[in-house]
């Protein structure tokens, strides 16, 4: 590819050139046959737009509110692991880009910069993503550190009691470098992680017994809003509302966990209907264009999160690359809104798109 990328997809090629194969495969890969990986992107292609004309679109306002926080656009940074594999500045660079774009970054539990390093690097609005560790006291300490350092929400990822089977990582014998948030929390299992495979790490450390009633425990140890990430069905959406979480993220973990789950965009509406407006629904999986953001909003998402494109931007051009990825998606969303007759985010409605189901 020559010159500057003109869309988010072009960062992928740059990242491929910049990264050792093992790391590129780690970021890029999905589970098993990677059916869901392909579908997450392709299902967007099967949704078309229903623009309205002769609306005053001389001013377009992309800004919106997520859990009470004003952001410049409904586009957030998803939690993704190990940014130092992509760039030496790691999650600090990503957070600075989030701050300059005035959006929210969700810091991964598996980050390679500490919660403190990221917090002191900039004033980005930050949420902290949590996996519950077998030793609950370690999880509790991490949450306290996040609270002390001004993180505004806890994102509990619920689709990874075990690690999905990512065959590229198995083939490459992908190793899990030291995860910085655990330093000082002394844990034999985590220290032993040096050089071991990620799957063994997850099996040894994550609490696979975690279930709905444990949300009460989590609620009792933090005052921060709790979102659960990884809901794909109306049944679980209803339970999430019942146990009193503050938000849902419709996600299949970027197709890295259970293969043959549907594309997230094709289950978003089911979840939105199930929660009947009681809590906000966010969305991730396969967002590569401003039109994708528009489609997710039309189906009822309050905002979207972006995973791989951010990591590819980071690998290709550091903080600047992440900033460009978010800006490109914002610019495309702005144009889509103008050409669809939607001057503001709240003007985007279900009637602005047509899904496959609508055509039946
Ligand atoms: C992830 N994801 C993820 N999710 C999470 O809750 N904690 C984590 O540590 C990670 N790590 C991670 C690493 C990499 C390399 C990827 C690609 C993804 C999932 C992530 O938050 C999000 O759900 C997906 O990335 C969204 O899909 P797209 O945007 O990558 O298509």
From TrEMBL:
One cellular component term from this protein's GO annotations in UniProt: peroxisome
Tell me the ranges covered by the FMN hydroxy acid dehydrogenase domain, including all copies. Answer: 1-358
User: EC number(s) for this protein?
Assistant: 1.1.3.15
Identify which cofactors the protein needs according to its UniProt entry: FMN
One Pfam family of this protein, by short name?
FMN_dh
Task: Spell out the catalytic residues.
Answer: 253
Which GO molecular function annotations are given, in alphabetical order?
(S)-2-hydroxy-acid oxidase activity; FMN binding
- Places the protein is found: Peroxisome
What UniProt keywords are attached to this protein's entry? Flavoprotein, FMN, Oxidoreductase, Peroxisome
Xref: InterPro entries? Aldolase_TIM, Alpha-hydoxy_acid_DH_FMN, FMN-dep_DH, FMN_HAD, FMN_hydac_DH_AS
Any single GO BP term: hydrogen peroxide biosynthetic process
| Residues binding FMN | 79-81, 108, 129, 157, 229, 251, 284-288, 307-308
- Catalytic reaction annotation: 2-hydroxyhexanoate + O2 = 2-oxohexanoate + H2O2; 2-hydroxyoctanoate + O2 = 2-oxooctanoate + H2O2; a (2S)-2-hydroxycarboxylate + O2 = a 2-oxocarboxylate + H2O2
Q: Where does glyoxylate bind?
A: 131, 166, 253, 256
Q: Which family does it belong to?
A: Belongs to the FMN-dependent alpha-hydroxy acid dehydrogenase family.
The name this protein goes by in its record: (S)-2-hydroxy-acid oxidase
Species of the source: Carpinus fangiana
